[in-house]
Amino acid sequence: MIVVFSLFLLSLLVVTAIAIVRSENLFSAVMLSGIFSLLMALNFFILDAADVALTEAAVGAGVSTVLLLGALALTPTEERRRKRERKVAATLVTVTMIFLAISYASFDQPRIGDPDAPVHRHVAPWYLEQTPELIDIPNVVTAVLGSFRGYDTLGEVYVVLTAGIGVLFLLSAGRPGLLPHRREPRIESSLKSHLIPHVVGRVLIPFIVLFGLYVQFHGEYGPGGGFQAGAIIAAGIILFALLEGEGAALKVLPPRVLVGLAIGGALLYLLVGVACMLLGGNFLDYSVLAADPVTGQQIGIILIELGVGLAVTGTLLSIFHAFAAREQ
Amino acid sequence: MSLEAHIPALPVIVPLLAAPIAAYLRPRHLAWAAATLASIASFAIAVLLALATRDGSIHRYAMGGWPAPFGIELAIDSLGALVLLIITGASTLAIIAGRETIERDIEPHRQPLFYAAWLMVVAGLAGIAITGDAFNVFVFMEISSLATYVVIAAGSDRQALTAVFKYLIMGTIGATFYLIGVGFVYMMTGTLNFADMQARLADIPYVAPVHLAAAFIIVGLALKAAVFPLHAWLPNAYAHAPHAVTAFIAACSTKVTILVLLRFDFVVFMGNIAEHATQFALFVMPLALLGILFGSGVAIFETNVKRLLGYSSIAQLGYILLGASFVDRAGLLASVLHIFNHALAKGALFLAIVALGHHLTRFEIRDLHGIGRRMPWTLGAFSIAALSLVGVPGTAGFISKWYLIVAAFGQGSLGLVLVGVIVASSLMAVVYLWRILEPAWFAAADPVAAGAADDKRVGEAPVGVLAVVLLAAALNVWFGLVPAFPLELAGHAADELLRHVP
Questions:
Q1: pLDDT tens for residues A165-222?
Q2: Would residue B234 count as lying in a domain?
Q3: In A, which residues are within 8 Å of B149 by CB distance?
Q4: Are B340 and B391 in contact (CB under 8 A)?
Q5: For residue A126, which of A22, A146, A262, A271 sits 20 to 30 Å off, Cα-Cα?
Q6: Helix (H, G, I), strand (E, B), or coil: what is residue A202?
């Protein structure tokens, strides 16, 4: 049964991907990419990767769709027609070659879920066995991301921050200030005048933010963590901005605060690592943060997850406002 | 633990700490100062590490205190230390020399963000150079790539945006290919650590996914390293970036990718895929030779100086890959040495461009006409670096070309052809550089050239900038006369890479 369902989802994924490529209307391409992410999230869920599914749903289907729409507000909705015959042929050849190569390799690859597959016999069992003992939290994924491979996660937070800095840098060209207040609202005008989204949205916002906080602080026990929580909270606040006007949202969280959140979150993560060094451990070795190493690990993970959440929320909202503030 | 034990982790931590602070610092001069200080500190650490690896030792650091295959391990060998030295050195010289031109070309309120992005490039590239973990390479590749796109897009003409968009697409495809390859290796080994991959691949009964992984990784990295014929993004990205950024990234960014390519192929694949040495040579050598001839050939007909030097970089990357494709000690030694010496020569050339950029707004060859009379010191430094690029005895470029030619003669009957290509390309380099230098020294200023400085009051660049440019040129001579230090590191790097080759 699950195989049939997977096949169905994967076929839909391919169809959606082709539809995105072929679509000349950018608005429908954006919507299709949201659908693509949702299908992807379902696939991850079928593979039992609940943490990844949550991230993909929140970031891919949620926030990035809104950001793309924000960018679309600055451009025409129709793609400019160009000669494309030659490129189609070249693309088809490339895609076919890669497809054949991957199919060739797939004959030798272990079956999905095979307990004897190399991935299940080397580091993964060690993580499963050692996590209860060394870190004592139920969600092993959080243990791997937060502690065992915490240096990678630090890197990912900086990727997010770099993206934010990049967008602010590019969109602030030719005018003073990072995120000036716009004279006239644009995006929100369409939603504000509709009664039903307005009423329903207002009811939803507190629950979205609350759910975000739950995902943030429950990450040690269930699927979730800073990345997902940051995206969900940002989505809630973006919804607020769409309903109540961007100005109202900026009044609650001004641009300097948002940039400060992004930078502060990344710095918090890094400084936890530095604190570990000062207390006599290696960089990001949270064991030294408390007298008991296991407690130290838990404190460390909670702190760095908080840093991740702040950085992601701050960056996503900064990017959103940067697009929304841009003159057409 | 004493501070000394943390030194391997510091080249990444220092710029990562300084970058967010620089983004928030006002006034903007403080942001520059923070970025410069962080860059100098990283350079000092890199020097320490390079000195420490002179004896061929590998310095390891367990991130988070977790042992190697379970946690992420930094492993700094001579190759990593050498590349780290290039990254931090290029960043330091370029950021000091570039202060005035950046101040002029980028609006004041954007400068803190620019310097933050600059430090992210340093952190990202340094993170790649020192890590011993294949996925960690990808993470830091993302940081450095994103930040590189940003600093290139800071170029003052709008074409920078088109150039950087092309680079972004190409770079993303390259990184994705690399990630797919790492995914396949992980699927077959269950590990992400380079050394552990090497050890575990030996017991794998199935080879198809590993072959495919090798293919994806080499193509992805070749795309990011601008190996011919995947170089299309490079010349325009160099040409339209701010001068200081070009000086920085031209010296190091493609070389870091070459380092990953060498690590993966030599450490992980050579010992575990039958005939991989032959496959590698057959794949890389023709591309290297074509790249050498193509890059030099196009450079001869190019009229924009920065783009011309970009094409020259494609040819020079060809030399680096050619040495590696011999899969022997002499070839790898020449290859690694050329990574260092080309960074010196190209870095010095672009630093001279930064100095010239104080008075020139465009860099068509005719804009440089007669500039030698007004800025003799800058053009003198440019000329010395040009000699080093050609490989004239007494300069750094000569040393690595000499080793490359000696290594090529070791290739039997093919050797003569290889040497012929190297010599031909060097002569072509003489031609394209002479096309710049001859009118720059001897011609009268072209009154029609729009970018030319329009009056005779124009003099040298500010003393600080000039000092950096002259220092870079002097380093080309210094390492041409006393090459012991890079030679030692390159020797150990070659030994380390060949340790796993049967």
A1: 999 999 887 655 545 444 444 554 556 677 887 888 889 999 999 999 999 988 888 8
A2: no
A3: 166
A4: no
A5: A271
A6: helix
pLDDT of residue A174: 67
Output phi, psi for B460, to 5 deg: -65, 165
* ipTM > 0.85, yes or no: yes
Phi, psi of A184 (to 5 degrees): -130, 130
Write the burial class of residue B457 (CB in 10 Å: 0-12 exposed, 13-18 middle, 19+ buried). exposed
Q: Please report whether residue B384 resides in a domain.
A: yes
Handedness of CA B172, B149, B223, B277 (dihedral sign): negative
Please say whether the beta carbons of A275 and A288 come within 8 A.
no
With a cut of 60, say whether residue A226 has pLDDT above it.
Answer: yes
Choose the closest CB to A166 out of B19, B149, B184.
Answer: B149
Comparing C-alpha atoms, which of B249, B40, B251 is closest to residue B154?
B249
Q: What is the DSSP track for A203-227? A: HHHHHHHHHHHHHHHTTTTSS--HH
User: Which amino acid makes up residue B267?
Assistant: V
- What's the domain count of chain B? 1
- In a mutagenesis test of the B interface, which of A114, A116, A165 is the best target, namely the one with the most B β-carbons within 10 Å? A165
Using CB atoms, which residue from B147, B190, B211 is nearest to A119? Answer: B190
Cis upstream peptide for B27 (omega within 30°): yes
Expressed as residue numbers, the domain containing B350 is: 278-502
Residues of A in contact with B208 (CB under 8 A): 104-105, 107-109
Collect all residues of chain A within an 8 Å Cβ-Cβ radius of residue B62.
282
Chain B segment 137-196 residues within 8 A of A by beta carbon are 139-140, 142-143, 146-147, 149-150, 153-154, 184, 186-191
Where along chain A do its domains lie? 138-328
Interface test with A, best of B28, B61, B187 (most A CBs within 10 A): B187
Residue with tokens 């605060």: A257
- Assess if residue B457 is contained within a domain: yes
Q: How far apart are CA B95 and CA B84, in angstroms?
A: 16
Helix (H) or strand (E) holding B74: strand B73-76
- Cβ neighbour number for residue A226 with a 10 Å cutoff: 30
Measured at the alpha carbon of residue B390, what is the angle toward residues B389 and B396, in degrees to the nearest 5? 55
Q: Which residues, 6+ apart, have CB-to-CB distance to B203 below 8 Å? A: none
Q: What is the pLDDT along chain B (502 residues), one digit of tens a residue?
A: 577 889 999 999 999 999 999 998 877 789 999 999 999 999 999 999 999 999 889 999 999 999 989 999 999 999 999 999 999 999 999 999 999 999 998 888 899 999 999 999 999 999 999 999 999 999 999 999 999 999 999 988 888 899 999 999 999 999 999 999 999 999 989 899 999 999 888 877 788 889 999 999 999 999 999 998 889 899 999 999 999 999 999 999 899 999 999 999 999 998 888 888 888 999 999 999 999 999 999 999 999 999 999 999 999 999 999 999 999 999 999 999 999 999 999 999 999 999 999 888 889 988 888 888 889 999 999 999 999 999 999 999 999 999 999 999 988 888 899 999 999 999 999 999 999 999 999 988 766 554 544 555 567 888 999 999 999 999 999 999 999 999 999 999 999 999 988 8
Alpha-helical (H) ranges within chain A are 2-22, 26-46, 50-55, 64-72, 85-106, 123-134, 140-143, 150-171, 187-192, 195-217, 226-244, 246-252, 255-278, 293-324
**Which two three-digit tokens encode residue B255?**
């070389």
pTM (2 d.p.):
0.94
Dihedral pair phi/psi, residue A315, rounded to 5°? -65, -45
Residue B235, in any domain of the structure = no
